[in-house]
Write a structure and sequence with these properties.
Distance between the termini: 65 Å
Strand content: 25-35%
CATH architecture of the domain at 160-322: Sandwich
CATH superfamily of the domain at 160-322: SPRY domain
Order of helices and strands: EEEEEEHHHEEEEEEEEEEEEEEHH
Number of helices: 5
Radius of gyration: 26 Å
Strand order of the largest sheet: 7-10-19-12-13-14-15
Amino acid sequence: KAPPTILAIKDPTWYIMGDEVFHNNKLVRSHYCRSLSLLRVGARVGIKRCSDGTLHVFINGHDQGIAAHNIPKWCCYGILDVYGGTVAVRVTSKVSNNIKGEVTLADPEEELSSACPPTKRDGQELTEEMKRMEDSSEKSPPDGDVLSEYCINEVDWFQLHEIKGRNVQLSSGRLTAKRVGSYNQGVVLTSREILKGQLFQVRIDAINSNWVSSLCIGVTSHPIATFSLPVTALGLKRDSWIICSDFVFHNGQKLKNKYGPNLDNLGVGRLVGVLVDQSSQLHLYVDGVDQGVAATNIPPSCRVIIDVYGRCEQVTVVNPYEDNASALSLHEELHASIQQENSIEEDNIEECVEPVDFTAHEKADLESHEKEKECLVLVMEEPLRSKIDKTN
């Protein structure tokens, strides 16, 4: 038997009332989103449990960010309380093909007759407001299609942008980026902006111990139309927040020291990610663990920027619906493509008169064209990074 209100449910329950998030009738978050009580006729509200166990709420197709964590994967149902001023709703999501058995729906006229005021019962004509709602629903595209496509393609799924550093090669699906030359010019961007409360992660796939320093990650609000990639991410001098080693940089200037684990020490298989929370604060995630606030006052329209630098030679975007078999296929495809490219370029490589010691750590701050032109043996004394990087 259904309880009179959502508050009477005794089983583990997560729900949003107004602009607050509740778990088992206990307030867990305030000012989460625009208050649901302010929504008008025709507004769309949706929920989604992501593969990382987080609950997201959508208002008119826009993700409001993470509402709750650790939502069970199995035996979890959506629940709706048509309460107070709301007297009628319509489900617009597609019916899942995984549902087995016959589904019986209640008589809509019988259900609505007990909820609607007398002026809307007994087959009377709809009010002008309800007519407008019906007309707009018929003219608009199916909401189920829109929300479903938005959830998969726009909210969870990331790809890398075609704009990339000179030494980067992308897989056909633009999920994997491999640096195929030198130690720098490996900057890549996400193909779209990151939403508030959304976690973006990459996996380190390959490490070259002959270099020093490693992966950098952050966000930039610089318009993509006028974006000019620097040699390294620290060369960005405007609208950027970059985490490098255990430092945080804003527009190339050091903002914070000893923040989180040193990214230079991370090995193959480690996950590195960023998230901008609802308060416009940038967070670093390492292996899914929040390292705290790295920077504040992040603009609303930002793309993630990754620098496949130094020791880090290859990364792969980790999406919620990543298929391991597909990921492996992409790696194999990228490796074959790189091998073919290298075999073609071997004929054009000029040998140096003096041998280069590739076993020694090379200083990754010298520009690649200078190193390759002079064919010098470089010995690093200090793992310094940003002082010699060139800017845009």
